[in-house]
Write a structure and sequence with these properties.
The structure holds two protein chains of two kinds. Chain A has a single domain, classed as MetI-like (MetI-like fold). Helices cover about 70% and strands about 0% of the residues of chain A. In chain A, α3 packs across α10, α4 crosses α7 and α8 runs antiparallel to α9. The longest helix of chain A is centred in the first third of the chain and has 32 residues. The two termini of chain A are about 30 Å apart. Helix content of chain B is about 70%, strand content about 0%. In chain B, strands 1-2 form a two-stranded antiparallel sheet. In chain B, about 40% of the residues are buried. Classes of the chains: A mainly alpha, B mainly alpha. Chains A and B meet through α1, α3, α4, α5 and α8 of A and α1, α4, α5, α6 and α8 of B.
Amino acid sequence: MLFPMIWLVSGVFKPGSEIFSGEFQLISENFTLKNFADGWYINPNHSFGYFLKNTFVMVGVVIGGTVISSSLAGFAFARLNFIGKWPLFIFMLATMMLPSQVTLIPKYIMFSKIGWIDSYLPFSIPAFCAVNGFHVFLIVQFIRGIPKELDEAAYMDGCSTFGIYGRIIMPLCKPVLFSVAIFTFIWTWDDYLNQLIYISSVDKFTVSLFLRSLIDSTSSISWGPLLANTLISLIPGIVLFFIAQPYFVEGIATSGLKG
Amino acid sequence: MFGEKKPFDSGKYKNKEAFLFLLPWILGVVLFTVGPMVQSLWLSFTDYSIYSEAKFIGLQNFIEMFSEDRMFKHSLLITLRYVFLFVPIKLIAALLIAVLLNQNVKGMSVYRTIYYIPSIVGAGIAMAVTWKIVLSRDGFVNEFLGIFGLGPFDFLTNPKMSLTTLALMGAWQFGSAMVVFLAALKQVPRELYEAGDIDGAGKVNQFFKITLPMISSTILFNLIMGIINAFQVFTQVSVITNGGPADSTYVYMLHLYRTAFESHRMGYSSALAWVLTFIILAFALVIFKSSQKWVYYEN
Protein backbone atom coordinates (compact mmCIF):
# COMPACT_ATOMS: atom_id res chain seq x y z
CA MET A 1 0.00 0.00 0.00
CA LEU A 2 2.72 2.42 0.89
CA PHE A 3 5.29 0.86 -1.36
CA PRO A 4 6.01 3.94 -3.51
CA MET A 5 7.00 5.79 -0.38
CA ILE A 6 9.07 2.93 0.90
CA TRP A 7 10.79 2.76 -2.46
CA LEU A 8 11.38 6.50 -2.27
CA VAL A 9 12.90 6.29 1.18
CA SER A 10 15.16 3.43 0.17
CA GLY A 11 16.19 5.10 -3.07
CA VAL A 12 17.06 8.39 -1.50
CA PHE A 13 20.00 6.91 0.32
CA LYS A 14 21.48 5.18 -2.71
CA PRO A 15 24.02 6.64 -5.05
CA GLY A 16 22.39 7.69 -8.32
CA SER A 17 23.64 4.75 -10.30
CA GLU A 18 22.00 2.22 -8.01
CA ILE A 19 18.51 3.62 -8.04
CA PHE A 20 17.57 1.86 -11.22
CA SER A 21 19.89 -1.07 -10.99
CA GLY A 22 18.50 -4.46 -11.77
CA GLU A 23 18.62 -5.90 -8.31
CA PHE A 24 16.68 -4.24 -5.64
CA GLN A 25 18.14 -3.75 -2.20
CA LEU A 26 16.29 -2.04 0.55
CA ILE A 27 19.39 -0.48 1.96
CA SER A 28 22.34 -0.08 -0.29
CA GLU A 29 25.86 -0.98 0.72
CA ASN A 30 26.85 2.44 -0.45
CA PHE A 31 24.44 4.17 1.86
CA THR A 32 24.86 7.84 1.23
CA LEU A 33 23.44 11.16 2.26
CA LYS A 34 24.90 12.87 -0.74
CA ASN A 35 21.56 13.09 -2.55
CA PHE A 36 20.22 15.40 0.09
CA ALA A 37 23.12 17.78 -0.25
CA ASP A 38 22.99 17.67 -4.03
CA GLY A 39 19.26 18.14 -4.08
CA TRP A 40 19.36 21.00 -1.62
CA TYR A 41 21.68 23.02 -3.81
CA ILE A 42 20.51 21.82 -7.17
CA ASN A 43 19.30 25.26 -8.19
CA PRO A 44 22.22 27.65 -8.61
CA ASN A 45 20.39 30.61 -7.10
CA HIS A 46 18.29 29.20 -4.31
CA SER A 47 18.59 26.26 -2.00
CA PHE A 48 15.68 23.90 -1.65
CA GLY A 49 15.18 25.44 1.76
CA TYR A 50 14.37 28.72 0.04
CA PHE A 51 11.45 27.15 -1.78
CA LEU A 52 10.33 25.41 1.38
CA LYS A 53 10.35 28.74 3.12
CA ASN A 54 8.35 30.32 0.30
CA THR A 55 5.70 27.66 0.59
CA PHE A 56 5.54 27.77 4.37
CA VAL A 57 5.13 31.52 4.34
CA MET A 58 2.42 31.42 1.72
CA VAL A 59 0.54 28.59 3.40
CA GLY A 60 0.99 30.18 6.81
CA VAL A 61 -0.65 33.40 5.73
CA VAL A 62 -3.48 31.50 4.09
CA ILE A 63 -4.05 29.50 7.27
CA GLY A 64 -4.07 32.64 9.39
CA GLY A 65 -6.55 34.38 7.13
CA THR A 66 -8.77 31.34 6.85
CA VAL A 67 -8.95 30.73 10.58
CA ILE A 68 -9.79 34.35 11.32
CA SER A 69 -12.40 34.93 8.62
CA SER A 70 -14.02 31.51 8.91
CA SER A 71 -14.32 31.73 12.68
CA LEU A 72 -15.87 35.19 12.46
CA ALA A 73 -18.45 33.98 9.98
CA GLY A 74 -18.94 30.74 11.86
CA PHE A 75 -19.62 32.60 15.09
CA ALA A 76 -22.17 34.78 13.38
CA PHE A 77 -24.06 31.85 11.92
CA ALA A 78 -23.91 29.81 15.09
CA ARG A 79 -24.62 32.41 17.73
CA LEU A 80 -26.17 35.54 16.30
CA ASN A 81 -29.64 36.22 15.03
CA PHE A 82 -29.98 38.44 12.04
CA ILE A 83 -32.07 39.17 9.00
CA GLY A 84 -31.65 36.58 6.31
CA LYS A 85 -29.71 34.21 8.53
CA TRP A 86 -31.13 31.01 7.12
CA PRO A 87 -31.06 31.95 3.43
CA LEU A 88 -27.49 33.13 3.84
CA PHE A 89 -26.53 29.95 5.62
CA ILE A 90 -28.00 27.79 2.92
CA PHE A 91 -26.29 29.98 0.37
CA MET A 92 -22.99 29.40 2.12
CA LEU A 93 -23.56 25.67 1.98
CA ALA A 94 -24.32 25.97 -1.70
CA THR A 95 -21.03 27.73 -2.35
CA MET A 96 -19.30 24.67 -0.95
CA MET A 97 -20.55 22.75 -3.93
CA LEU A 98 -19.46 25.28 -6.53
CA PRO A 99 -17.01 23.61 -8.89
CA SER A 100 -13.80 25.55 -8.92
CA GLN A 101 -13.30 25.57 -12.67
CA VAL A 102 -16.16 28.03 -13.10
CA THR A 103 -14.50 30.78 -11.08
CA LEU A 104 -10.99 29.92 -12.22
CA ILE A 105 -10.82 32.11 -15.29
CA PRO A 106 -12.62 35.26 -14.10
CA LYS A 107 -10.49 35.24 -10.97
CA TYR A 108 -7.40 35.01 -13.11
CA ILE A 109 -8.60 37.87 -15.27
CA MET A 110 -9.41 39.99 -12.22
CA PHE A 111 -6.06 39.31 -10.56
CA SER A 112 -4.26 39.95 -13.76
CA LYS A 113 -5.97 43.31 -14.21
CA ILE A 114 -4.99 44.48 -10.73
CA GLY A 115 -1.48 43.21 -11.08
CA TRP A 116 -1.53 40.41 -8.54
CA ILE A 117 -0.17 37.84 -10.94
CA ASP A 118 3.17 36.43 -9.88
CA SER A 119 2.54 37.01 -6.23
CA TYR A 120 0.91 35.20 -3.37
CA LEU A 121 -1.93 37.69 -3.10
CA PRO A 122 -4.39 35.57 -5.10
CA PHE A 123 -3.99 33.04 -2.32
CA SER A 124 -3.80 35.18 0.77
CA ILE A 125 -6.46 37.80 0.19
CA PRO A 126 -9.31 35.36 -0.57
CA ALA A 127 -8.24 33.42 2.51
CA PHE A 128 -9.05 36.45 4.64
CA CYS A 129 -12.50 36.45 3.03
CA ALA A 130 -13.59 32.97 4.10
CA VAL A 131 -14.01 31.72 0.56
CA ASN A 132 -14.07 28.12 1.63
CA GLY A 133 -17.48 27.42 3.10
CA PHE A 134 -16.35 24.02 4.31
CA HIS A 135 -14.36 25.61 7.13
CA VAL A 136 -17.16 27.93 8.12
CA PHE A 137 -19.45 24.92 8.23
CA LEU A 138 -17.07 22.91 10.42
CA ILE A 139 -16.83 25.79 12.85
CA VAL A 140 -20.57 26.37 12.95
CA GLN A 141 -21.19 22.73 13.76
CA PHE A 142 -18.59 22.82 16.49
CA ILE A 143 -19.84 26.01 18.12
CA ARG A 144 -23.33 24.57 18.20
CA GLY A 145 -21.99 22.08 20.68
CA ILE A 146 -20.87 24.75 23.09
CA PRO A 147 -23.48 25.48 25.77
CA LYS A 148 -25.16 28.82 25.37
CA GLU A 149 -25.10 29.36 29.12
CA LEU A 150 -21.48 30.33 28.78
CA ASP A 151 -22.42 33.09 26.39
CA GLU A 152 -25.23 34.20 28.66
CA ALA A 153 -23.06 34.31 31.73
CA ALA A 154 -20.51 36.44 29.95
CA TYR A 155 -23.21 38.71 28.61
CA MET A 156 -24.55 39.22 32.09
CA ASP A 157 -21.10 40.25 33.17
CA GLY A 158 -21.20 42.94 30.56
CA CYS A 159 -19.21 41.22 27.88
CA SER A 160 -19.66 42.54 24.39
CA THR A 161 -20.53 40.27 21.52
CA PHE A 162 -17.04 40.48 20.19
CA GLY A 163 -15.77 39.73 23.66
CA ILE A 164 -17.87 36.59 23.75
CA TYR A 165 -16.39 35.63 20.44
CA GLY A 166 -12.84 36.30 21.46
CA ARG A 167 -12.78 35.31 25.09
CA ILE A 168 -15.35 32.57 25.43
CA ILE A 169 -16.02 30.82 22.17
CA MET A 170 -12.68 30.97 20.38
CA PRO A 171 -10.58 29.51 23.18
CA LEU A 172 -13.02 26.62 23.32
CA CYS A 173 -12.78 26.18 19.57
CA LYS A 174 -9.15 25.18 19.53
CA PRO A 175 -9.84 21.65 18.26
CA VAL A 176 -11.91 22.72 15.27
CA LEU A 177 -9.63 25.64 14.49
CA PHE A 178 -6.80 23.18 14.49
CA SER A 179 -8.73 20.98 12.04
CA VAL A 180 -9.35 23.98 9.82
CA ALA A 181 -5.66 24.83 9.89
CA ILE A 182 -4.68 21.33 8.91
CA PHE A 183 -7.13 21.02 6.05
CA THR A 184 -6.05 24.43 4.81
CA PHE A 185 -2.40 23.48 5.02
CA ILE A 186 -2.82 20.37 2.95
CA TRP A 187 -5.18 21.84 0.38
CA THR A 188 -3.01 24.92 -0.12
CA TRP A 189 0.31 23.07 -0.18
CA ASP A 190 -1.06 20.71 -2.82
CA ASP A 191 -2.93 23.31 -4.85
CA TYR A 192 -0.89 22.79 -8.00
CA LEU A 193 -3.22 24.36 -10.57
CA ASN A 194 -3.51 27.71 -8.84
CA GLN A 195 0.19 27.84 -8.09
CA LEU A 196 0.83 27.05 -11.72
CA ILE A 197 -1.25 29.88 -13.09
CA TYR A 198 -0.43 32.58 -10.56
CA ILE A 199 3.27 32.15 -9.95
CA SER A 200 5.71 32.55 -12.76
CA SER A 201 9.08 33.76 -11.51
CA VAL A 202 11.41 31.21 -10.02
CA ASP A 203 12.01 33.50 -7.06
CA LYS A 204 8.49 32.91 -5.93
CA PHE A 205 8.26 29.24 -6.74
CA THR A 206 6.64 26.98 -4.26
CA VAL A 207 7.86 23.48 -3.56
CA SER A 208 5.40 22.01 -6.07
CA LEU A 209 6.50 24.30 -8.87
CA PHE A 210 10.15 23.72 -8.06
CA LEU A 211 9.74 19.95 -8.15
CA ARG A 212 8.00 20.22 -11.48
CA SER A 213 10.86 22.28 -12.83
CA LEU A 214 13.22 19.49 -11.85
CA ILE A 215 11.45 16.91 -13.96
CA ASP A 216 10.79 19.34 -16.76
CA SER A 217 14.34 19.77 -17.83
CA THR A 218 15.14 18.33 -21.19
CA SER A 219 18.67 17.64 -20.12
CA SER A 220 19.31 14.48 -18.19
CA ILE A 221 17.67 14.31 -14.80
CA SER A 222 19.74 13.62 -11.76
CA TRP A 223 17.59 11.08 -9.98
CA GLY A 224 19.23 11.07 -6.58
CA PRO A 225 18.72 14.75 -5.81
CA LEU A 226 15.23 14.63 -7.31
CA LEU A 227 14.23 11.79 -4.99
CA ALA A 228 15.76 13.58 -2.03
CA ASN A 229 13.80 16.76 -2.70
CA THR A 230 10.64 14.79 -3.33
CA LEU A 231 11.00 13.04 -0.02
CA ILE A 232 11.64 16.26 1.85
CA SER A 233 8.54 17.82 0.36
CA LEU A 234 6.43 14.94 1.67
CA ILE A 235 7.65 15.37 5.20
CA PRO A 236 5.64 18.41 6.31
CA GLY A 237 2.41 16.73 5.25
CA ILE A 238 3.23 13.50 7.04
CA VAL A 239 4.44 15.19 10.20
CA LEU A 240 1.32 17.29 10.26
CA PHE A 241 -0.80 14.22 9.78
CA PHE A 242 0.67 12.45 12.75
CA ILE A 243 0.31 15.46 14.96
CA ALA A 244 -3.23 15.98 13.88
CA GLN A 245 -4.51 12.47 13.46
CA PRO A 246 -7.15 12.55 16.17
CA TYR A 247 -8.60 15.80 14.87
CA PHE A 248 -8.66 14.61 11.29
CA VAL A 249 -10.58 11.46 11.71
CA GLU A 250 -13.04 12.88 14.21
CA GLY A 251 -13.54 16.00 12.15
CA ILE A 252 -14.38 14.21 8.93
CA ALA A 253 -16.31 11.42 10.47
CA THR A 254 -18.61 13.48 12.65
CA SER A 255 -19.23 16.71 10.80
CA GLY A 256 -22.82 16.46 9.71
CA LEU A 257 -22.74 12.99 8.21
CA LYS A 258 -25.39 11.64 10.49
CA GLY A 259 -28.14 9.76 8.79
CA MET B 1 -38.10 45.09 36.38
CA PHE B 2 -35.19 45.09 38.69
CA GLY B 3 -33.39 41.81 38.30
CA GLU B 4 -35.39 40.90 35.24
CA LYS B 5 -33.15 38.76 33.13
CA LYS B 6 -32.65 40.04 29.62
CA PRO B 7 -32.40 36.83 27.67
CA PHE B 8 -29.25 36.69 25.66
CA ASP B 9 -30.44 35.21 22.51
CA SER B 10 -34.20 35.38 22.51
CA GLY B 11 -34.56 36.13 18.86
CA LYS B 12 -33.18 39.57 19.41
CA TYR B 13 -31.70 40.63 16.15
CA LYS B 14 -28.14 41.81 16.08
CA ASN B 15 -27.97 42.80 12.48
CA LYS B 16 -25.24 45.35 12.75
CA GLU B 17 -22.93 43.11 14.70
CA ALA B 18 -23.64 40.10 12.54
CA PHE B 19 -22.87 42.20 9.50
CA LEU B 20 -19.47 43.09 10.89
CA PHE B 21 -18.69 39.49 11.70
CA LEU B 22 -19.80 38.40 8.29
CA LEU B 23 -18.13 41.20 6.40
CA PRO B 24 -15.04 39.24 5.33
CA TRP B 25 -17.22 36.40 4.16
CA ILE B 26 -19.57 38.72 2.31
CA LEU B 27 -16.61 40.33 0.57
CA GLY B 28 -15.34 36.91 -0.34
CA VAL B 29 -18.65 35.83 -1.73
CA VAL B 30 -19.07 38.92 -3.85
CA LEU B 31 -15.51 39.31 -5.07
CA PHE B 32 -14.31 35.75 -5.30
CA THR B 33 -17.34 33.53 -5.67
CA VAL B 34 -20.53 35.02 -7.05
CA GLY B 35 -18.87 37.87 -8.92
CA PRO B 36 -16.52 35.59 -10.86
CA MET B 37 -19.33 33.13 -11.45
CA VAL B 38 -21.51 35.75 -13.08
CA GLN B 39 -18.59 37.08 -15.04
CA SER B 40 -17.72 33.62 -16.20
CA LEU B 41 -21.22 33.14 -17.51
CA TRP B 42 -20.98 36.39 -19.42
CA LEU B 43 -17.54 35.49 -20.72
CA SER B 44 -18.76 32.24 -22.15
CA PHE B 45 -20.70 34.23 -24.72
CA THR B 46 -17.69 36.28 -25.73
CA ASP B 47 -14.42 36.07 -27.51
CA TYR B 48 -11.82 37.42 -25.13
CA SER B 49 -8.08 37.15 -24.88
CA ILE B 50 -7.19 39.57 -22.06
CA TYR B 51 -5.01 41.59 -24.39
CA SER B 52 -7.97 42.97 -26.30
CA GLU B 53 -11.57 43.89 -25.58
CA ALA B 54 -14.19 41.23 -25.06
CA LYS B 55 -16.37 40.76 -28.07
CA PHE B 56 -19.86 39.42 -27.65
CA ILE B 57 -20.40 36.50 -30.00
CA GLY B 58 -23.53 34.86 -28.69
CA LEU B 59 -23.65 31.12 -28.81
CA GLN B 60 -20.69 30.75 -31.10
CA ASN B 61 -18.42 29.26 -28.47
CA PHE B 62 -20.93 26.53 -27.77
CA ILE B 63 -21.53 25.87 -31.43
CA GLU B 64 -17.81 25.56 -32.00
CA MET B 65 -17.49 23.29 -29.02
CA PHE B 66 -20.06 20.80 -30.18
CA SER B 67 -19.37 20.86 -33.89
CA GLU B 68 -15.74 21.69 -34.57
CA ASP B 69 -13.74 21.12 -31.45
CA ARG B 70 -12.48 17.58 -31.76
CA MET B 71 -10.52 17.84 -28.55
CA PHE B 72 -13.65 18.79 -26.64
CA LYS B 73 -15.37 15.53 -27.49
CA HIS B 74 -12.15 13.63 -27.02
CA SER B 75 -11.33 15.08 -23.64
CA LEU B 76 -14.90 14.54 -22.49
CA LEU B 77 -14.72 10.87 -23.48
CA ILE B 78 -11.38 10.45 -21.78
CA THR B 79 -12.68 12.09 -18.63
CA LEU B 80 -15.79 9.91 -18.64
CA ARG B 81 -13.64 6.82 -18.96
CA TYR B 82 -11.55 8.07 -16.08
CA VAL B 83 -14.63 8.67 -13.94
CA PHE B 84 -16.01 5.19 -14.62
CA LEU B 85 -12.67 3.62 -13.76
CA PHE B 86 -11.69 5.73 -10.80
CA VAL B 87 -14.93 5.99 -8.86
CA PRO B 88 -15.90 2.30 -8.62
CA ILE B 89 -12.36 1.21 -7.80
CA LYS B 90 -11.96 3.86 -5.14
CA LEU B 91 -15.31 3.18 -3.50
CA ILE B 92 -15.03 -0.58 -3.56
CA ALA B 93 -11.51 -0.47 -2.15
CA ALA B 94 -12.53 2.02 0.51
CA LEU B 95 -15.55 -0.02 1.54
CA LEU B 96 -13.80 -3.38 1.56
CA ILE B 97 -10.87 -2.16 3.61
CA ALA B 98 -13.22 -0.32 5.95
CA VAL B 99 -15.22 -3.50 6.51
CA LEU B 100 -12.03 -5.45 7.16
CA LEU B 101 -10.69 -2.86 9.56
CA ASN B 102 -14.01 -2.73 11.34
CA GLN B 103 -13.53 -6.27 12.61
CA ASN B 104 -11.56 -4.84 15.53
CA VAL B 105 -8.33 -6.22 14.28
CA LYS B 106 -5.41 -5.76 16.58
CA GLY B 107 -3.40 -2.69 15.65
CA MET B 108 -6.30 -1.32 13.69
CA SER B 109 -5.25 2.27 14.15
CA VAL B 110 -1.91 1.48 12.56
CA TYR B 111 -3.58 -0.03 9.52
CA ARG B 112 -6.00 2.83 9.35
CA THR B 113 -3.10 5.26 9.34
CA ILE B 114 -1.31 3.33 6.62
CA TYR B 115 -4.32 3.36 4.34
CA TYR B 116 -5.10 6.99 5.12
CA ILE B 117 -1.67 8.49 4.47
CA PRO B 118 -1.96 8.39 0.66
CA SER B 119 -4.98 10.69 0.90
CA ILE B 120 -2.97 13.25 2.76
CA VAL B 121 0.23 13.28 0.80
CA GLY B 122 -0.91 11.69 -2.40
CA ALA B 123 -2.63 14.66 -3.97
CA GLY B 124 0.48 16.68 -4.40
CA ILE B 125 3.15 16.71 -6.98
CA ALA B 126 5.69 14.79 -4.90
CA MET B 127 3.76 11.53 -5.10
CA ALA B 128 2.99 12.17 -8.75
CA VAL B 129 6.69 12.39 -9.47
CA THR B 130 7.38 9.31 -7.40
CA TRP B 131 4.72 7.28 -9.17
CA LYS B 132 6.01 8.41 -12.51
CA ILE B 133 9.45 7.07 -11.68
CA VAL B 134 8.25 3.90 -10.03
CA LEU B 135 6.03 3.00 -12.97
CA SER B 136 8.57 3.73 -15.67
CA ARG B 137 10.04 1.04 -17.83
CA ASP B 138 13.08 0.65 -15.58
CA GLY B 139 11.11 1.43 -12.50
CA PHE B 140 10.54 -0.60 -9.44
CA VAL B 141 7.16 -2.05 -10.41
CA ASN B 142 8.54 -3.54 -13.59
CA GLU B 143 11.60 -4.81 -11.71
CA PHE B 144 9.32 -6.48 -9.24
CA LEU B 145 7.10 -8.01 -11.88
CA GLY B 146 10.23 -9.16 -13.65
CA ILE B 147 10.90 -11.51 -10.80
CA PHE B 148 7.80 -13.41 -11.80
CA GLY B 149 8.74 -13.23 -15.44
CA LEU B 150 6.10 -10.59 -16.19
CA GLY B 151 6.40 -7.39 -18.14
CA PRO B 152 7.99 -4.95 -18.52
CA PHE B 153 4.89 -2.88 -18.99
CA ASP B 154 4.71 0.66 -20.29
CA PHE B 155 2.21 1.70 -17.66
CA LEU B 156 2.34 5.37 -18.50
CA THR B 157 3.70 5.35 -21.99
CA ASN B 158 1.37 2.85 -23.62
CA PRO B 159 -1.79 4.63 -24.76
CA LYS B 160 -3.84 1.58 -23.92
CA MET B 161 -2.69 1.44 -20.30
CA SER B 162 -2.05 5.05 -19.40
CA LEU B 163 -5.52 6.12 -18.38
CA THR B 164 -6.20 3.01 -16.35
CA THR B 165 -2.87 3.49 -14.61
CA LEU B 166 -3.78 7.06 -13.74
CA ALA B 167 -7.18 5.99 -12.48
CA LEU B 168 -5.59 3.39 -10.23
CA MET B 169 -3.13 5.96 -9.00
CA GLY B 170 -5.99 8.23 -8.08
CA ALA B 171 -7.96 5.45 -6.45
CA TRP B 172 -4.87 4.62 -4.37
CA GLN B 173 -5.85 7.66 -2.31
CA PHE B 174 -9.03 5.99 -1.12
CA GLY B 175 -8.14 6.56 2.53
CA SER B 176 -10.41 9.52 3.02
CA ALA B 177 -13.42 7.66 1.68
CA MET B 178 -12.43 4.70 3.80
CA VAL B 179 -12.42 6.74 6.97
CA VAL B 180 -15.89 8.02 6.19
CA PHE B 181 -17.10 4.46 5.61
CA LEU B 182 -15.53 3.36 8.89
CA ALA B 183 -17.47 5.99 10.75
CA ALA B 184 -20.67 4.88 9.06
CA LEU B 185 -20.02 1.21 9.75
CA LYS B 186 -19.59 1.96 13.41
CA GLN B 187 -23.06 3.41 13.53
CA VAL B 188 -24.76 0.27 12.32
CA PRO B 189 -26.50 -1.18 15.39
CA ARG B 190 -25.01 -4.42 16.59
CA GLU B 191 -28.44 -5.88 17.22
CA LEU B 192 -29.07 -6.12 13.50
CA TYR B 193 -26.08 -8.39 13.03
CA GLU B 194 -26.99 -10.41 16.08
CA ALA B 195 -30.49 -10.87 14.75
CA GLY B 196 -28.95 -11.92 11.47
CA ASP B 197 -26.79 -14.48 13.23
CA ILE B 198 -29.80 -15.87 14.99
CA ASP B 199 -31.63 -16.18 11.72
CA GLY B 200 -28.72 -18.14 10.37
CA ALA B 201 -27.59 -15.56 7.81
CA GLY B 202 -23.95 -15.91 6.76
CA LYS B 203 -21.46 -13.04 6.87
CA VAL B 204 -21.69 -12.34 3.18
CA ASN B 205 -25.45 -12.33 3.28
CA GLN B 206 -25.35 -9.98 6.24
CA PHE B 207 -23.08 -7.67 4.32
CA PHE B 208 -25.52 -7.31 1.47
CA LYS B 209 -28.73 -7.32 3.47
CA ILE B 210 -27.69 -5.39 6.57
CA THR B 211 -24.46 -3.46 6.08
CA LEU B 212 -25.01 -2.03 2.62
CA PRO B 213 -28.51 -0.67 3.21
CA MET B 214 -27.56 0.79 6.57
CA ILE B 215 -24.64 2.71 5.14
CA SER B 216 -26.32 3.55 1.86
CA SER B 217 -26.48 7.28 2.62
CA THR B 218 -22.73 7.27 3.14
CA ILE B 219 -22.26 5.38 -0.09
CA LEU B 220 -24.26 8.12 -1.78
CA PHE B 221 -22.08 10.80 -0.24
CA ASN B 222 -18.84 9.13 -1.27
CA LEU B 223 -20.23 8.44 -4.72
CA ILE B 224 -21.10 12.07 -5.39
CA MET B 225 -17.85 13.37 -3.92
CA GLY B 226 -15.89 10.85 -5.94
CA ILE B 227 -17.59 11.78 -9.18
CA ILE B 228 -17.12 15.50 -8.63
CA ASN B 229 -13.45 14.98 -7.91
CA ALA B 230 -12.94 12.65 -10.83
CA PHE B 231 -14.37 15.10 -13.34
CA GLN B 232 -11.96 17.76 -12.08
CA VAL B 233 -8.76 15.71 -12.19
CA PHE B 234 -5.81 17.81 -13.26
CA THR B 235 -2.61 17.73 -11.19
CA GLN B 236 -1.66 14.09 -11.66
CA VAL B 237 -2.42 14.18 -15.35
CA SER B 238 -0.60 17.41 -15.98
CA VAL B 239 2.53 16.38 -14.15
CA ILE B 240 2.77 12.73 -15.09
CA THR B 241 1.57 12.39 -18.66
CA ASN B 242 0.51 15.89 -19.70
CA GLY B 243 -2.32 14.41 -21.72
CA GLY B 244 -0.21 11.90 -23.53
CA PRO B 245 0.81 9.55 -24.85
CA ALA B 246 -1.09 10.26 -28.03
CA ASP B 247 -3.73 12.20 -26.09
CA SER B 248 -4.80 9.05 -24.29
CA THR B 249 -4.96 10.89 -20.98
CA TYR B 250 -6.11 14.26 -22.28
CA VAL B 251 -8.72 15.04 -19.66
CA TYR B 252 -11.25 17.85 -19.76
CA MET B 253 -9.48 20.11 -17.28
CA LEU B 254 -6.34 19.86 -19.33
CA HIS B 255 -8.26 21.03 -22.38
CA LEU B 256 -9.69 23.89 -20.37
CA TYR B 257 -6.29 24.85 -19.02
CA ARG B 258 -4.68 24.86 -22.44
CA THR B 259 -7.49 26.81 -24.03
CA ALA B 260 -7.29 29.45 -21.32
CA PHE B 261 -3.60 29.74 -20.57
CA GLU B 262 -1.91 28.62 -23.73
CA SER B 263 -4.33 29.68 -26.42
CA HIS B 264 -5.51 32.63 -24.33
CA ARG B 265 -9.12 32.07 -25.27
CA MET B 266 -10.81 33.18 -22.09
CA GLY B 267 -14.30 33.26 -23.52
CA TYR B 268 -14.17 29.80 -24.99
CA SER B 269 -12.63 28.27 -21.89
CA SER B 270 -15.32 29.86 -19.75
CA ALA B 271 -17.85 28.14 -21.95
CA LEU B 272 -15.96 24.88 -21.42
CA ALA B 273 -16.09 25.44 -17.68
CA TRP B 274 -19.85 25.86 -17.69
CA VAL B 275 -20.42 22.82 -19.85
CA LEU B 276 -18.39 20.74 -17.41
CA THR B 277 -20.36 22.17 -14.52
CA PHE B 278 -23.64 21.18 -16.13
CA ILE B 279 -22.38 17.70 -16.87
CA ILE B 280 -21.35 17.21 -13.25
CA LEU B 281 -24.66 18.61 -12.10
CA ALA B 282 -26.52 16.27 -14.41
CA PHE B 283 -24.66 13.28 -13.05
CA ALA B 284 -25.30 14.38 -9.48
CA LEU B 285 -28.99 14.88 -10.12
CA VAL B 286 -29.41 11.51 -11.79
CA ILE B 287 -27.69 9.83 -8.89
CA PHE B 288 -29.75 11.74 -6.38
CA LYS B 289 -32.94 10.81 -8.15
CA SER B 290 -31.94 7.17 -8.27
CA SER B 291 -30.97 7.33 -4.62
CA GLN B 292 -34.60 7.45 -3.63
CA LYS B 293 -34.74 3.82 -4.62
CA TRP B 294 -31.68 2.53 -2.87
CA VAL B 295 -30.79 4.85 0.00
CA TYR B 296 -32.23 4.15 3.42
CA TYR B 297 -32.51 6.95 5.93
CA GLU B 298 -32.96 6.44 9.61
CA ASN B 299 -35.99 8.69 9.63
